[in-house]
Amino acid sequence: MSGASGTPYAAAVLRALLAAGEAVDLVVSRASRLTLLDETGISFRDAHWRDDLREWLARGADGKPDAFRTDLDGVRYWNAGDLAAGPSSGSYPAKGMLIVPASTACVAGVALGLSKDLLQRAASVVLKERRRLVVAVREAPLNGQTLRHLVALDDAGATVVPASPAFYAGATHIQDLVDFVAGRVLDAAGVPHTLYRRWEGELGGGSRDD
Q1: For the chain, is the Cβ count within 10 Å smaller at the N or the C terminus?
Q2: Which one, of 131, 134, 142, 135, lies nearest residue 102 by Cα?
């Protein structure tokens, strides 16, 4: 998680990863802690990360209690300042990496290979090892510099998924829109889920202009 607004997206992705039985290495940037506090009122603490994470994942996008009941045995937490952590090395086993949400500062750091913290370093490792990197950028509007950074990430093999919800899936609540974005992130990562209704074409074979 980087410091962009959009912590509900990260929560939805985490819940779905755990539901799919995936092991998760969690890195929460310093700026993301501030965003999480601002958007949820939850203070994410290293010494109590498990309790704080459980409280966060048990809320929906509207801040109300959700139906999250999965245990956190599959989560391993790493401090963003720990550049000696497992994900900082290419020999550490990992399928790939999801940055949700991705701030423009994070996008720039990864595109330029700065590795100023564990989040950026882990992303650089994923790229050099030719593993999947999915970047859910959350910003509007996008200036030319950020667009160039996103093109650089695409050229390096990353998949850029803008946090842009669609409406064809019949969303009736905020959580539906959040889940659509989370689902597209998981699609890019090859993780099965049931977060949104997929487009299957018009009934009867008609066009939208009929």
Answers
A1: C
A2: 135
Residue 159: partners with Cβ closer than 8 Å, 6 or more residues away: 132, 133, 134, 135, 188
- Asked if 20 and 192 touch (Cβ cutoff 8 Å), the reply is yes
Residue 58 CA, distance from chain mean position: 17
**Cβ distance 66 to 101 under 8 Å?**
no
pLDDT computed for residue 208 by the predictor: 47
Does residue 161 contact residue 188 with C-beta atoms inside 8 Å? yes
Its pTM stands at 0.91
Mean pLDDT for all residues in the chain: 92
Q: What is the dihedral of CA 121, 122, 128, 132, to 10 degrees?
A: -150
Rounded Cα distance between 67 and 70, Å, is 9
At 123, phi and psi to the nearest 5? -65, -40
C-alpha to C-alpha distance for 190 and 90, rounded to whole angstroms: 20
| 3-state helix vs strand vs coil in the chain, percent to 5 | 45, 15, 45
Which pair of tokens denotes residue 136?
Answer: 């859910």
pLDDT at residue 66 greater than cutoff 80: no
Q: What are phi and psi of 178, to 5 degrees?
A: -65, -45
Query: What pLDDT does 20 receive?
Result: 95
Question: Which residue ranges form the domains of the chain, and what is each CATH number?
Answer: 7-190 (3.40.50.1950)
